[in-house]
Design brief:
Number of helices of chain A: 16
Structural class of chain B: mainly alpha
Largest interface: A-B, 36 and 42 residues
Strand order of the largest sheet of chain B: 1-2
Distance between the termini of chain B: 87 Å
Distance between the termini of chain A: 80 Å
GO molecular function, one term (chain A): metal ion binding
Helix content of chain A: 40-55%
Oligomer: heterodimer
Number of domains of chain B: 3
Organism (chain A): Caulobacter vibrioides (Caulobacter crescentus)
Low-confidence stretches of chain B: none
Keywords (chain A): 4Fe-4S, Electron transport, Iron, Iron-sulfur, Membrane, Metal-binding, Transmembrane, Transmembrane helix, Transport
Function (chain B): C-type cytochrome. Part of the cbb3-type cytochrome c oxidase complex.
Strand content of chain A: 15-25%
Protein name (chain A): Cytochrome c oxidase accessory protein CcoG
Structural class of chain A: alpha+beta
Shape of chain A: elongated
Number of strands of chain B: 5
Chain lengths: 497, 288
């Protein structure tokens, strides 16, 4: 197990970055008392390859989120034309060519389990990659920080602004920032509701006050949470509210890639003058760039810790400085505890992605994913369900014939109306009939994408050779679609006469 | 209080408790947590004032919004009645045949019929409608008074021997109790009826009873014992026996001439409800 807090290290002043801001705000001591004010964090803009990956993912994930509801998809007349739609009123879920009924919610269960396993696998291999790059909290916080920089400048300018007395400049910058934040938050909530209703219709009805109340409530709720979580709470959501930092420890082991400060290489740290020898000292010049860029407000040099979201911004910051110093990069890097330990013993560090736990996760993921996909693909186009009458189980006719009643439910999942011919297999000479109908054969017309329920009687002649309970089945056939359902034909004891 | 110490590694005070050498750090909670707590307190005070909250000796505080679950249930019930009103209107205007042929109306009538049947009819006819000795089976294809939709509707509306106007009435004489026939003749007639339903019977008795049946029974039950739905006389040749098919039951019926009573439902159920009930019974019996 990786150590979460390294107690062997000398205690550095990890909070000096924030205490400056605290002083600026004129707040008292953060320690003591039952409740702690948030220690403001002013992450500095950093450039580098991980930052580039983060930008790319920020654009990609937000694009998917905002654009998806606007993709149109050709479906027959009378069906939604939206590619991704959770249609609660129609009780259907549409996702491109997939259309799910409420009773097929197990597909979602499969997808969710697969997603959880994928998260486990990713964490076991690469640490908290999800947290650092793809989690909505991270992505929206990143976006909010961009806005913040736009209005208030980068770290130093922001700290100065917060410390400065109220002025027109401060007021418009703060107001502009919060208004933009609220705009983005509103856009977030607005985009969310489009997944549940035809987007072009909803965007029109929304503005003229004709949209359903749930749309306004959902939009307001998401606007509020986005604004509060990404604007005000940020890292506190990850540290205090999210359970994942607590759980992820169970997925990590000494071979998981985590953002790691290479202590052996960095220590002893200290200021370095140009031209000075690097002999007898570490590569860390204690410039604190890794600390000031950290959106979680931690010092990675303290060792891996609960708050770290593995986003790699400190790696970029450190590499930038090392490049300027002409030292090899990678003082802070994605590395494994095992590799660090191996190097400290002078052995060659080997990255081991294939380990028992990653194999378990991968196999489980393949199984669940495969099963879900298989059940989705082999899903029948129509279903027949038979509910046998229980009271009475059978009725004896005036001529001694025995009649059983059944309720048939035929589900037509195709986009066309279908005519199902129903036959009964099990009792020779049995006759099918429908209450109130004179037709000798049972044909059920099921509209497109509907379930039709029908009562059907099966009458066995008096001379039929019947045991008390005869296994039987109903078969419904419509063109190439054949669906059947097992049942029994009950007739009680042998004919009493 | 246990001894509180400053943890060396983090510089944070511990709670002072110790479990297996592990000490818990006493980190302060974030302040927003406190704010949320205050907000909850403020909300609860507002809630006390606006909503029913405090019990008293003579009831409870009603709250300024005058909102309660009870009132909401009342509103929902009203909405339900209004909703059912639509269905009732459809049932009122459609004929019995139209109701049965229209899948949607038929399904609606089935629903209404089933619940009304359970409340009013199941006591005698059984929850499944299969009846019992003396109470007609409503699921088979045998009908004393006719099994067409209109017949069923009429029977439900007016009842049988109910005393109501238009009620279906038939009376089988109590041949034994009223001493219209000798016990020996009743025994012979019993054998004759058993024979009618194609079961083994004493041939001598059957032959002796033939003129007796012709004289006493055929007027209502028909010369071949086929029954007569106009009179509510049961068919004696089929497999269905309202008062039992064994010899003792048949003999008892000839002796006492039992006839059941069914109340008229016109005063208790609305015409729409009776329509729905008729469709429910008709379709469950396979229709006639």
């Amino acid at each position: 197990m990786p150590t979460l807090i390294d107690n062997t290290a000398p205690k550095p002043d990890t909070r000096s970055a924030v205490s400056a801001a605290e002083r600026a705000k004129g707040k008292g001591d953060a320690k003591g008392g039952l409740y702690k004010p948030r220690q403001p964090i002013y992450p500095k803009l950093v450039h580098g390859k991980w930052r580039m990956v983060k930008w790319a993912l920020l654009i990609a994930t937000l694009s998917v989120y905002y654009i998806t509801p606007w993709i149109r998809w050709g479906r027959p007349e009378g069906f939604p034309q939206q590619a991704a739609l959770v249609d609660f009123t129609g009780r259907r879920f549409y996702f491109f060519d997939i259309q799910l009924w409420p009773q097929e919610v197990y597909v979602f269960t499969g997808v969710l389990i697969a997603a959880a396993l994928a998260l486990f696998l990713t964490t076991a291999l690469f640490g908290r990659l999800w947290c650092g790059y793809a989690c909505p909290q991270t992505v929206w916080t990143d976006l909010y920080i961009v806005v913040e920089r736009l209005f208030e400048g980068d770290r130093n300018a922001r700290m100065r602004l917060d410390a400065a007395p109220l002025s027109f400049d401060k007021i418009w910058r703060k107001t502009g920032k919060h208004l933009t934040w609220l705009g983005i938050a509103f856009g977030t909530g607005g985009a969310w509701i489009f997944y549940f209703h035809d987007a072009p219709t909803l965007i029109r009805t929304f503005w003229i006050g004709q949209a359903p109340a749930t749309a306004y409530v959902s939009c307001a709720l998401l606007t509020a949470t986005t604004y509060i979580f990404a604007g005000w709470m940020r890292e506190q959501v990850c540290t205090y509210m999210c359970p994942w930092p607590r759980i992820q420890g169970a997925m990590l082991d000494q071979h998981s890639l985590q953002v790691t400060y290479l202590r052996e290489r960095g220590e002893p740290r200290g200021a370095h003058k140009k031209g000075q020898s690097w002999e007898g000292r570490g590569d860390c010049i204690d410039c604190r760039q890794c600390v000031v860029v950290c959106p979680m407000g931690i010092d990675i040099r303290d060792g891996s810790q609960l708050e770290c979201i593995n986003c790699g911004l400190c790696v970029d910051a450190c590499d930038d400085i090392l490049g300027k110093l002409g030292r090899p990069t990678g003082l802070i890097a994605y590395d494994t505890d095992a590799a660090v330990a191996a190097r400290s013993c002078g052995q060659k560090a080997v990255y081991k992605p294939v380990r028992s736990r990653t194999v378990y996760y991968a196999v489980a993921l393949a199984l669940v994913g495969g099963l879900t996909l298989w059940s989705l693909i082999t899903r029948p186009k129509a279903d027949l369900h038979v509910i046998r009458d229980r009271n009475p189980t059978f009725v004896r006719m005036h001529d001694g014939a025995v009649r059983d009643g059944y309720t048939l439910k035929i589900t037509n999942r195709t986009f066309a109306e279908r005519r199902f011919d129903v036959t009964f297999d099990g009792v020779s000479g049995a006759r099918l009939s429908q209450p109130g109908q004179t037709a000798q054969r049972v044909t059920l017309i099921v509209p497109a994408d509907q379930v039709v329920s029908a009562r059907v009687f099966v009458t066995a002649p008096a001379d039929a050779d019947l045991a008390g309970s005869v296994p039987a089945r109903f078969i419904a056939k419509s063109g190439d679609i054949i669906t059947e359902s097992k049942t029994v034909f009950l007739s009680g004891a042998a004919n009493p006469q | 209080m246990a001894d509180r110490k400053i943890d060396d590694a983090t510089g944070v005070e511990t709670t002072g408790h110790e479990w297996d050498g592990i000490r818990e750090l006493d980190n302060p909670l974030p302040r927003w947590w406190l704010w949320i707590w205050y907000a909850c307190i403020a909300f609860s005070i507002g809630y006390w004032v606006l909503m029913p909250a405090w019990p008293g000796l003579n009831g409870y505080t009603k709250g300024l919004l005058n909102k309660s679950d009870r009132a909401e249930v009342g509103q929902e019930l009203k909405a339900l009645e209004a909703h059912r009103g639509e269905g009732a209107a459809m049932l009122r205007t459609a004929s019995l045949e139209q109701i049965e042929k229209d899948p949607k109306l038929q399904a609606y009538a089935q629903q209404v019929g089933q619940s009304v049947f359970g409340d009013n009819c199941a006591t005698c006819h059984g929850i499944g409608g299969t009846g019992s000795k003396g109470y007609a089976n409503l699921r088979d294809d045998v009908w004393l008074w006719g099994g067409k939709l209109e017949d069923i509707q009429y029977t439900i509306t007016h009842g049988i021997r109910s005393g109501a106007e238009g009620a279906r009435v038939s009376q089988m004489p109590a041949y034994g109790r009223d001493e219209m026939l000798q016990p020996k003749q009743i025994d012979d007639l019993t054998e004759y009826v058993v024979n009618l339903s194609r079961r083994p019977a004493d041939a001598g008795a059957v032959a002796r009873a033939a003129p007796l049946f012709e004289a006493q029974c055929s007027a209502c039950h028909g010369p071949q014992g086929q029954g007569n739905q106009q009179l509510g006389a049961p068919n004696l040749t089929d497999a269905d026996w309202l008062f039992g098919s064994d010899r003792a039951s048949i003999r008892g019926q000839i002796y006492a001439g039992n006839g059941g009573v069914m109340p008229a439902w016109s005063g208790r159920l609305s015409p729409e409800t009776i329509k729905a009930l008729s469709v429910y019974i008709h379709s469950n019996a396979g229709g006639q």
